[in-house]
Design brief:
It contains 29 helices and 28 strands. The protein has 855 residues and is an alpha/beta fold.
Length: 855
C-alpha cells in the first residue's frame, strides 16, 4: 500500500502566529515568561504533551487559539516576549566582545545525546544534560558553535515499576513532525542527505535541525525508506542493542557527522568530542585532508591533533568504550586502506600498549592520542584520568600528563526555579540576566533577606510535594491500585518537613541504597516526631543493568513498609522535568557515590543554585566545591580497597552527619520560625555554585584554554596550503627517528661540603648527547624538589637550562654542555635530576608519547 504524505500545520490566528516560531526554538526551555504563555493556553494539554509546545499547538482546538488571539493581555505579553527573543538573538554577547576576530571560525561539538528539554527525548542522563546545557550556554555567550548528534526514533526508555518494584521499560516512538525539529532541505526543497558505507553497503542519512537559541544542532537519521531495515534501526534507540549496534551508531555520528557538516557548507576550524563515542569523526577528517589537500597521513594527523578537544567523563577503565578488532575491521577496514595504514598500525592508535594484540580498540585511547586538548570534568577526575592513562605517555610524570581539568557547570537559566529567578532579579539587578557568568553578580546572594529567601524556598518545597503527589497518583492508577490507595496519595508527604532528594542513574557505584544500609537507624531518623524527615527518590537503571534494577526494587520494598509509607516516595520515569522539581524543592541533595568513581556530577550544582544544600561524599565536583559554610560532607575523602568496608564506613558517616548536623540545624528556628543558620548556608551555596559551577564559567574556560588556541593552530597550520603543517610534521618525524639516541651522561655539582642549607643556590652542569638533533630542537630542564620515602621527587618544578657557550656546537659526537641553577627552598631530603624534551613553538604542546629523555 502506498500513502501520499501531507504535513498539516495548525492555523494560528495572525495576532498569535509568533507562537509557532517561538515553539520551534529551544530558547523557550529556559524562558519562563514564554512557558507561562503556553501553560495559559491549556495547562492540562501542556502536561499531556510532555511540555512540548509544537505538539501542543497542533492539538489545541481552533477555538482555544482564537480565544487567545482575542485576549488583549495575552497578545501584549506575547509581543513583549517575542521582542525579548529577537533582542536575545541580535544582541552582542561575551564571545563577540572578547574574541571578535574569531567569530568566523566554527566550533563543531559532537555528542551521542542531548538533554535539552522534556519534550525532546534524545537523552538518557547526565552526559546528555551536560551537552544540552553546553549548547544553551554557547548561545548565551555567543560562541560560533554547531552541534551534531543522532535522532533516535524511540529515544531512551520510559520507566514503569511493577507492584514489587521491578523496573519495566517502555519505548515510545517519537513523532518528529510534532517536535521542535525541522527536516533540513536544499534549495530545491529536497532533504539534504549524505551517504556512508557499512559492510560495503551504502547507508543514507538525512538531517534534522534543532535551534537552541542561536546554536544549530543537527541530528542524523537513518530511518528512511531507501535504507535496509537493518540500516534504519541504527538510529532507533539510545544506548540500546549490542556492540554491533553501538559501533554502527558511532560511525554514523562520527563519519556521517563530518560528511553532514560538509554537505551544509560548514567547515569547522576545530572539533570538540564529548566522550569517545564520536572519535570516528577523526577518520573522516583525516581522509578529507589527505584527499582534498594532498597531505600525508602523518601531516593530516598533526593537523587533526592540533585542532581537536576531547572531554573524557569516565573515571574507571571498564567504563570506556572498546571494540573487538574483528568488529572494527568489518566496518572500517576500507577506510584504513584509504588512509594508507596497515591494520596493525591502525589498531595501535586505539591501544595503550600497541604491541599487545589482545588489547581491544579503545575509543578513549584513540581520542586521547588524537587530541592536543584533553580534559577531565573536575579537578579530582583530572587527577584520576592522568593516573588511569599515564601509560600512553610512559616516561612522563603523572602530574604532567596532558589531560587538564575543566570542571563541569550547569545552565543557570534552565535549572534555577522561576520563583528563585524572580528573587535573584530583584536583588542581583539586570546583570543577573545579562551576565550570569560574571562572578561579581553572585556576591549579591548575601544581600537577600533571610525571610524572603526562606519564603521562596518553602514555596518550592510545597510545589515539589504537590508534584510528587500528582505523579504518585498517576503511578498508582497505572498499577491498578484501589480507590482508597489513590486517595491516600493526596495526603502523602508534609510540605513543612525536611525533605531529602536523591535522583540519578541507578548504577551500582552511585549507591542509591546506601541510605538504607542500616534500616532500623534510618527508621529512627525519618520517624522522629520532633524533627521528622522525608525522602523523595527517582532514577532509572540501564535496561541491561540487573544489579541497578535490584537496588530500585529493594528501595520500593522498603518504601512499602508501613513505617515508611509516608516517608519514602520513589517517583517513576525520571526525566528533566522530575529533576527540575527535585533540585528546586528539596532541602537536602544527597549524593553518595564510591569515591573516586563520580567524574563530576552536576545535579548537586543545580541544587546549590536553588539554595538546596548538598550532603555528599567528597567526590567529583563536591571535592572542590565543598566548604563548611555551603553544605555538608560524608566522610573526609577516604578510599578503601574493600567495597564492603567503604560502604559500611560511608553509611556510618552519612547517618552521623544527618543526626548531628543536618537535621538539628534545619529545625533550629528563630522567633519567626526561620532557621537563620540554615539560610546562611543556603546563601553560601548559591554564591559558591553561581560563581564557580555555572556552564558560563565552564565554556569561558573551554574558550580561553582550548577553543581559541585550537583556532589559532588551525589558522597557522592551514596557511599557504598547509605549509607549516608539513614543516612541523617533517620536524617531528626527524626528531622521533633520532630521539632514542638522546641521553644525559652526567650531572655535575660543585663540592657542597658537609651540608646544604635552605635558600642555598646550587650550580648544575649537564653533559647531553643529542646526536643528530640540534640544541634548537630541544629544551633541557633541571627537575628538583623534595624526595619521598620511595626516593621519588615530589612537588618539583622544572627549570630550563642554558647551553654553555664554551661547548660551541658540541663535539663530533653531538655532546653539549648545559648549565643551570637550583635553589633549596625547604629543609629535608632534596633531589634533582635532568631531562630533555622537544621544543617547537609551532606545536600546541610537546607532551607527545615517548618524546622525553631522563638522566
Amino acid at each position: 500500500m502506498r500513502v501520499k504524505q501531507l504535513l498539516v500545520l495548525p492555523r494560528l490566528p495572525e495576532r498569535i502566529s509568533k507562537l509557532q516560531e517561538l515553539a520551534n526554538n529551544l530558547w523557550y526551555s529556559w524562558n519562563w515568561d514564554l512557558v507561562k504563555l503556553f501553560i495559559r493556553l491549556d495547562p492540562d494539554m501542556w502536561e499531556r504533551t510532555y511540555q512540548n509546545p509544537v505538539e501542543m499547538l497542533t492539538r489545541l482546538p481552533q477555538h482555544v487559539l482564537q480565544r487567545a488571539a482575542d485576549d488583549e493581555a495575552f497578545v501584549v505579553t506575547l509581543d513583549r516576549v517575542y521582542d525579548k527573543y529577537q533582542n536575545y538573538l541580535k544582541m552582542k554577547k561575551w564571545f563577540d566582545y572578547k574574541y571578535a576576530d574569531y567569530k568566523d571560525n566554527t566550533i563543531a561539538y559532537f555528542s551521542l545525546e542531548y538533554g535539552l528539554d522534556t519534550g525532546l527525548p534524545v537523552y538518557s542522563g547526565g552526559l546528555g544534560v551536560l551537552s544540552g546545557d553546553t549548547l544553551k550556554t554557547a548561545s548565551d555567550l555567543g560562541l560560533p558553535m554547531v552541534a551534531m548528534g543522532l535522532l533516535y526514533r524511540y529515544g531512551y526508555f520510559r520507566q514503569t515499576l511493577s507492584k514489587d518494584g521491578w523496573q519495566q521499560e517502555r519505548y515510545e516512538e517519537n513523532d518528529w513532525y510534532h517536535m521542535p525539529v525541522t527536516l533540513v532541505k536544499d534549495e530545491n526543497d529536497h532533504p539534504v542527505r549524505v551517504s556512508i558505507m557499512l559492510e560495503d553497503v551504502p547507508v543514507q542519512i538525512q538531517l534534522w535541525k534543532v535551534m537552541v537559541g542561536q546554536i544549530p544542532l543537527y541530528l542524523l537519521d537513518t530511518n528512511i525508506p531507501e535504507n535496509s531495515s537493518k540500516a534504519r534501526e541504527i538510529t532507533s534507540v539510545l544506548y540500546g542493542g549490542d556492540k554491533n549496534m553501538r559501533i554502527r551508531q558511532e560511525i554514523v555520528l562520527g563519519i556521517g557527522g563530518v560528511k553532514a557538516l560538509h554537505a551544509l557548507g560548514i567547515r569547522p576550524a576545530m572539533y570538540h568530542s564529548n566522550e569517545g563515542h564520536s572519535w570516528f569523526l577523526t577518520l573522516e577528517r583525516l581522509r578529507n585532508l589527505m584527499q582534498e589537500h594532498g597531505l600525508s597521513f602523518r601531516e593530516a594527523a598533526e593537523y587533526v591533533w592540533s585542532t581537536t578537544v576531547f572531554t573524557t567523563h569516565t573515571p574507571v577503565p571498564a567504563g570506556n568504550e572498546q571494540f573487538d578488532p574483528v568488529l572494527v575491521h568489518r566496518y572500517l577496514g576500507h577506510i584504513v586502506e584509504q588512509l594508507g595504514l596497515s591494520w596493525q598500525e591502525f589498531l595501535s592508535l586505539g591501544r595503550v600498549n600497541p604491541e599487545d594484540e589482545r588489547e581491544p580498540f579503545g575509543m578513549t585511547v584513540a581520542a586521547l592520542k588524537f587530541s592536543a586538548f584533553c580534559n577531565g570534568v573536575s579537578e579530582l577526575h583530572g587527577n584520576v584520568s592522568r593516573e588511569m592513562w599515564h601509560n600512553i605517555w610512559p616516561n612522563l610524570p603523572q602530574e604532567e600528563i596532558p589531560i587538564k581539568s575543566i570542571t563541569n557547570g550547569v545552565h543557570t537559566g534552565s535549572w534555577i526555579s522561576h520563583d528563585m529567578i524572580e528573587l535573584y532579579e530583584s536583588y542581583f539587578g539586570p546583570q543577573f540576566t545579562e551576565r550570569p557568568g560574571a562572578p561579581e553578580v553572585w556576591e549579591k546572594a548575601y544581600t537577600i533577606p533571610d525571610v524572603e529567601l526562606w519564603r521562596v524556598h518553602n514555596r518550592r518545597r510545597e510545589r515539589l510535594v504537590f508534584f510528587a503527589r500528582k505523579r504518585l497518583k498517576q503511578q498508582l492508577i497505572r498499577r491498578g491500585a484501589s480507590h482508597m490507595e489513590i486517595q491516600k496519595a493526596e495526603q502523602l508527604l508534609n510540605p513543612s518537613t525536611l525533605t531529602i532528594g536523591f535522583a540519578r542513574r541507578f548504577s551500582t557505584y552511585k549507591r542509591g541504597n546506601l541510605l538504607f544500609y542500616d534500616i532500623e537507624r534510618l527508621a529512627s531518623i525519618l520517624n522522629n516526631p520532633e524533627m521528622p524527615v522525608q525522602v523523595l527518590m527517582s532514577g532509572k537503571a540501564h535496561p541491561l543493568d540487573t544489579p541497578g534494577k535490584e537496588i530500585i526494587k529493594d528501595i520500593i520494598g522498603h518504601a512499602s513498609e508501613e513505617r515508611f509509607r509516608n516517608k519514602i516516595i520513589f517517583l517513576e520515569d525520571y526525566d528533566i522535568n522530575v529533576g527540575r522539581y527535585l533540585v528546586q524543592g528539596a532541602d537536602i541533595w544527597l549524593n553518595n557515590p564510591r569515591r573516586p568513581q563520580e567524574a563530576s556530577g552536576t545535579s548537586g550544582m543545580k541544587a546549590s543554585l536553588n539554595g538546596v544544600l548538598n550532603v555528599s561524599v567528597l567526590d567529583g565536583w563536591w571535592d572542590e566545591g565543598y566548604s563548611d559554610e555551603s553544605g555538608f560532607k560524608i566522610g573526609n575523602g577516604e578510599e578503601y580497597e574493600s567495597v564492603e568496608t567503604q560502604d559500611r564506613m560511608d553509611a556510618e558517616a552519612l547517618y552521623g552527619v544527618l543526626e548531628r548536623e543536618v537535621i538539628p540545624l534545619f529545625y533550629d528556628r528563630d522567633q519567626i520560625d526561620i532557621p537563620t543558620k540554615w539560610v546562611a548556608k543556603m546563601k553560601a551555596a548559591i554564591h559558591m555554585a553561581g560563581q564557580r559551577f555555572s556552564a558560563h564559567r565552564m565554556l569561558m574556560d573551554y574558550s580561553n584554554h582550548f577553543y581559541i588556541p585550537a583556532m589559532d593552530a588551525a589558522e597557522r597550520l592551514s596557511a599557504d596550503s598547509f605549509a607549516l603543517c608539513r614543516e612541523v610534521t617533517s620536524w617531528e618525524s626527524r626528531i622521533s627517528e633520532s630521539w632514542d639516541r638522546i641521553h644525559i651522561s652526567d650531572i655535575e655539582l660543585p663540592d657542597l661540603g658537609s651540608a646544604v642549607y635552605v635558600g642555598q643556590r646550587i650550580p648544575v652542569k649537564m653533559h647531553v648527547h643529542l646526536g643528530a638533533i640540534t640544541p634548537e630542537d630541544v629544551r633541557v630542564e633541571i627537575v628538583s624538589g623534595r624526595i619521598n620515602s620511595q626516593d621519588q621527587l615530589q612537588n618539583y618544578s622544572p627549570i630550563g637550562a642554558t647551553l654553555d657557550g664554551s661547548s660551541g656546537n658540541g663535539n663530533s659526537n653531538g655532546v653539549y654542555v648545559y648549565q643551570g641553577e637550583v635553589e633549596c627552598l625547604e629543609s629535608g631530603r632534596f633531589g634533582l635530576t635532568a631531562r630533555v624534551i622537544p621544543k617547537n613553538d609551532n606545536l600546541v604542546h610537546t607532551r607527545k608519547p615517548k618524546l622525553i629523555s631522563w638522566w
